[in-house]
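Homework help board

Subject: predicted structure for assignment chain

Our instructor gave us this sequence and asked us to write out the predicted structure in token form, then describe one feature. I got the tokens but I'm not sure how to describe them. Can anyone check?
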Amino acid sequence: MPQTTLTPAAFHILLALTARDLHGLGIADWVEEATGGAVELGPGTLYRSLKELLDAGLVRQAAAPDAEADPRRKYYGITPSGRAAVSRDAARLQRLVELARERDLLPERA
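My token output:
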């Protein structure tokens, strides 16, 4: 996949998967909790984005974590390419935050 900026949904999905494999609802729940409710991934956005990320080789289907997991749920994991893409975008966002601080748009770090 060419080195392009990720969509906000793709960035959040990949970030969620950096810790462990998750199913779709687990991803959506993680994103909502991590953003304090500021980002909610609806089913259409979530599953369309997951399909695009699968097609791009940034995520893969993963095995359920245990035999007692709901067999109807599909689990997803991040690939090395996905980790590189989310890392690149995180660095890009960090540069933007630093610029915003320089322009007195954000407070200095405590």
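Reply (TA_rk): Your tokens look well-formed. For the description, you could write something like this. The chain has a mean pLDDT of 92. That's the kind of observation they're looking for.
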